[in-house]
Amino acid sequence: MTIVAGYVPTQEGAAALDYAMAQAKKTNSLLVVINSSRGTALVDRNYASPEDVENVEERLAAEGIEHLVLQPVRGRDATDEVLDAAQTHNADLIIIGMRRRTPFGKLIMGSTAQRILLEADCPVIAVKAGWHANSSREV
What we know:
Blueprint: E1 2-6, H1 11-27, E2 30-34, H2 50-62, E3 67-70, H3 78-88, E4 93-98, H4 103-109, H5 112-119, E5 124-128
Parallel strand pairs: 1-2, 1-4, 2-3, 4-5
């Protein structure tokens, strides 16, 4: 089994990563973590720093999870990078974090999560910020 997780260095990204790690460990799956940037701005808040990536790598290794952490910078939308990774790695599941947005915000800015949910060829789990592996909820 292969799981693709979209990751950004935010509470939503942390929740998605925690959930993906728990699921990968439970199912002994390959976990492909995607953190991308269009590369069109000098500072992209969603692009993980080298320290963030190292932390993610260390957590995955400590849990014994087979993994890849990818950070493409190809001028593409994050949605396209997650969907491309899912197709390339024959993902059985995609896990993404979700943040609360107003209807007007979704209309103007679009929604990465919505596009992934609608366009993915495999099941998608959307995780709210604040979820963590130590919660009492079943994974």
